[in-house]
Amino acid sequence: MQTCAEWITQATGITCHSDKVRPGYIFVAIVGRTTDGNAFAAAAAARGALVIVSDSPARLPPLTLPVITVPDARLALARLAALFYGNPSDKLHLVGITGSNGKTTIACMLEHIFTQAGLTTGLIGTIRVNTGTNSFPSTLTTPDAVSVQHYLAQMLKNKVTHAAMEVSAQGIDMHRVANVRFSAGILTNLCADHLDFHGSFASYLEAKAKFLDLLGTGTPLIVNIADPYCQAIAGRFSGKLITAAIDSPADITASITHLTTYGSAFTVTVNRPLAAGNGQMLPAGRYPMTLALPGRHNVENALLAGIAALVHGLAPETIGAALADFRSVERRMNIFHLEGLTIVDDTALNPGSIDAVFAALASFRYNRLIVVNAIRGQRGTAINAANAAALTGQRRKLPFELIITASNEQVGPADSVTAEEKLAFLTTLNTLKTDYTYTGTLSGAIRLALGHALPGDLLLLIGAQGMDAGRQVLSSLAKTPENPCRDQGHYPRPVWSAAAE
Ligand SMILES: CC(=O)N[C@H]1[C@@H](OP(=O)(O)OP(=O)(O)OC[C@H]2O[C@@H](n3ccc(=O)[nH]c3=O)[C@H](O)[C@@H]2O)O[C@H](CO)[C@@H](O)[C@@H]1O[C@H](C)C(=O)N[C@@H](C)C(=O)N[C@H](CCC(=O)O)C(=O)O
Hints:
The protein is of the alpha/beta class. It is built from 18 helices and 23 strands. Helix content is 34%, strand content 23%.
């Protein structure tokens, strides 16, 4: 009987979705969260599958083609995909980034730093996939195992040498990144998130801790050691640990000298010599940096991205120049202006990111604050109760008008808010005695906010996916056609200078 590895030599492709099967494909049947892939084996066979791989063959219908039984179909899918595409990650410098918040910004920062250093660069993340020549929007933070290996193989073909990849807890748990070799890992921060998927914060943390197993002992793990949960997980890592923190003891620290609406200035101190790629050592030293993004959390993101670039042998000066030049990431503290009103748009999908956004507002000057928060759909009640509690916590520190919306007419049903999610959010606000206005649609919520806002006020748009539609709504509601956001391209380019402070 042929082994999986032998079938690979004959296969024309590999997939776990029956609709994607073409003649000569290996079909891996996965017992999923919503349906059973074994039930689609006959459809896969009809489409010309070469062989079926299953960890539960008793669930398969009668078939005339060969079946390979494996202990874990998801792991088998990842291994087969890596084999099929020739283990592309072995030949790449690939930084894996995990944590609750900051993954997307760090991945985009690293892509930018590597590119600015003249390297051919790739990216796999929440917003975009960049295979070196092709850049296209992504659907998941960490794609399925076959797509991961396919994208990495495309990168190699396109002469990519350095890449950044976001690694979600779901991705780790579902073995989407098994058989991916990372040249460095980053652990950003941890807070309650994805409680619907993982069941509890403890099992979410366990899923994140499994990231350590994906890194070999020789692969450096860069950790934000100021985060207590990251600290606990890092304590279990037996490999090369590089600790980072703002204003706390760590191997590499940042101290912030300026924190303004449009950016920050900070000094990075390398407190001990660091192995910096190609066998070179970076001596201890201090390096001034600037960043054209608001918020302390973005300094933290820049510090972690910068260290990953350092361990790949990039000079601090190159990293500093690239960071200074980095533009904002979609829906991450995007600032724009509308008729004297400042608008800040951020995804802020969990308590950690809500707190970070409000902390960043401290450097903004405004008269009144109006917050439009869209409830997070299809992610369960626990995260929505936690988000409502986080908003209440912020409201106890500074006054703001709170407008809640549950639905966004421009978002498909996949992101729609369930009655239970809405109830969990609003009940938490009611229990904590936080007053708010509820409006059924995003455009309605934004209209209401604009109706109350005066020049000099700040409107904060946070929450659910699809809120980017808020920008379109705002543009369509603008009383004058000269919305500066439109004139300046996707986002206004922020400029920081010490004099502007
Ligand atoms: C809960 C979850 O993560 N589900 C993902 C998972 O589904 P699953 O394996 O349980 O599959 P299933 O839908 O039950 O189907 C079982 C099997 O039958 C197969 N099938 C199904 C139908 C059919 O006609 N034929 C067929 O062969 C499926 O391909 C699958 O192999 O695998 C699918 C294929 O890769 C993913 O599309 C799907 O993501 C869903 C859509 C999703 O929304 N996932 C989110 C929660 C997610 O993963 N998010 C993270 C984190 C984001 C963040 O940090 O915020 C991410 O990395 O994006």
